[in-house]
Amino acid sequence: MFSGFVSAFRTPDLRKKLLLTLGILAVYRLGVAIPTPGVNYENVQLCAASTNTNAAFDILNLFAGGALLHLSIFALGIMPYITASIIVQLLRVLIPRFETLYREGQEGQAKLTQYTRYITVGFAALQSASYVTLARNGQFFPGCAYPVVPDESWQTITMMVLTMTAGTVFVMWLGERITERGVGNGMSLLIFTSIAASFPSNISAIWRSSNGPMNTLLLALLLLVVIAVVVFVEQSQRRIPVQYAKRVVGRRTLGGSSTYIPLKINMAGVIPVIFASSLLTLPVVIAQFSGNDPADWVVWMQNNIADPKAPGHMLLYILLIIFFAYFYTAITFNPDQVADDMKKYGGFIPGIRPGKPTADFLEYVLSRITAAGSIYLAIVALVPMVAFVMMGVSTNIPFGGTSILILVGVGLDTVKRIQSQLEQRHYEGFLK
Q1: In what helix (H) or strand (E) does residue 3 lie, and over which residues does it extend?
Q2: CA 413 to chain centre
Q3: Is residue 414 a part of any domain in this protein?
Q4: Count: domains in the chain
């Protein structure tokens, strides 16, 4: 591992990418610490120290690296962009024009990216206005007597909304720069950085709230087992053999080689968990705007959907993870296109006829693999949460299976990207 890092920094172009990525992540963490103009940061610190934060916003605060409850300029983090990405990908299924743009290649996908940016700005403006309103009403720190936003004039509120919206756009720009010129997926790395920054405080909170050293030891063992399972499954794949027929072109004979199509058990990665977590925050936000005398359906939603301990919340979480696992896999891997490309270059799967039979076989294998992968994601996301409830650990701690999946999944993906670039330059890389 150490020699791999040394080799990476000895390679000039890879060293530039790594330093650029680290520099952008440092800028992001710096912005998390800068409060939004109009916020009394001293009162925010007093409220955070004297009262319990609203558990409904803990998962959003985790994804924002602690910026949300401190109302910093990056309070929204990258979540508006993720929500916009969900909508654009759903529209690809509903609107043929969007699917056509996606198939047009780089130019069409650039237009889809531009639509995603526009939707992100709209979501950022709506969410920033909502969070400013909740902060003024004391929803972030229930029972705190210190005013978080002392000046409630429309000029101050407008400035706060514009600042948070601009902060989200800047975070989106940072993520795109990492993807284009750095190492790894920029949006995933920003979420990884946010969760990693909160990791020590969350582990400390779990330690303090666990009932006795035995529970602490069991929780530690459980987390290690979950991490080991995640690493094992993320590295697992189904290899479908592909044989290329020999072709004579002029005086040369081409083809005749054997290769394989690697299908990961978890083709969607951590995307289904992030999508499901972001959607489950909507009932929480709706419940917060219901006031002191909510309607009956809002009370039911608070007790059965918004509460992480409720069976309805867990069931909906599982269903959303399974749905997004199938959905994201379907839009990222097209069996018909793969079968056509294989047929074009003279490739075939032994025992399977080229063309539609090959596409049907790939779709059959992919559906079975995705079933196992989606169930794995749901189990890993829920096991720590269930263990917290059974052992009496506070469920207000947002760290759990979702955090482990993101940390391990994004970490492995980034290491693999660095390794692939090292191997292109004849180095061994990180993974032996």
Answers
A1: helix 2-10
A2: 13
A3: no
A4: 1
Contact call for residues 196 and 399 (beta carbons, < 8 A): no
User: 82: closest CA among 90, 94, 73, 70?
Assistant: 90
**Looking at the domain assignment, is residue 151 inside a domain?**
yes
CA atoms within 13 A on the CB side of 307: 13
193 within 8 A of 175, measured Cβ to Cβ: no
CATH number at residue 98: 1.10.3370.10
Q: What are phi and psi of 349, to 5 degrees?
A: -90, 125
Among 388, 413, 401, which Cα is nearest to 227's? 401
Q: pLDDT tens digit string along 90-137?
A: 788 788 888 888 878 788 888 888 999 999 999 999 888 888 888 887
Residue 53 sits in which domain range?
A: 1-199
pTM of the model: 0.79
Considering the domain boundaries, does residue 5 fall inside one? yes
* Helix, coil or strand: residue 338: helix
Phi and psi angles of residue 259, each rounded to the nearest 5 degrees, phi first:
-145, -165
Is the CB of residue 367 less than 8 Å from the CB of residue 262? no
Question: How does pLDDT run across 166-203, given as a tens digit for each residue?
Answer: 999 999 999 999 988 888 888 888 888 888 887 777 77
The H or E element spanning position 239 is strand 237-244
Q: How far apart are CA 222 and CA 209, in angstroms?
A: 16
Q: Is residue 172 part of a domain?
A: yes
Kindly write down the DSSP assignment for every residue of 280-302, as one continuous string: HHHHHHHHHTT-SS--HHHHHHI
Q: Is there a contact between 271 and 83 (Cβ–Cβ < 8 Å)? A: no
Instruction: Answer left, alpha or beta for residue 151, where phi above 0 means left and psi between -120 and 50 means alpha.
Output: beta
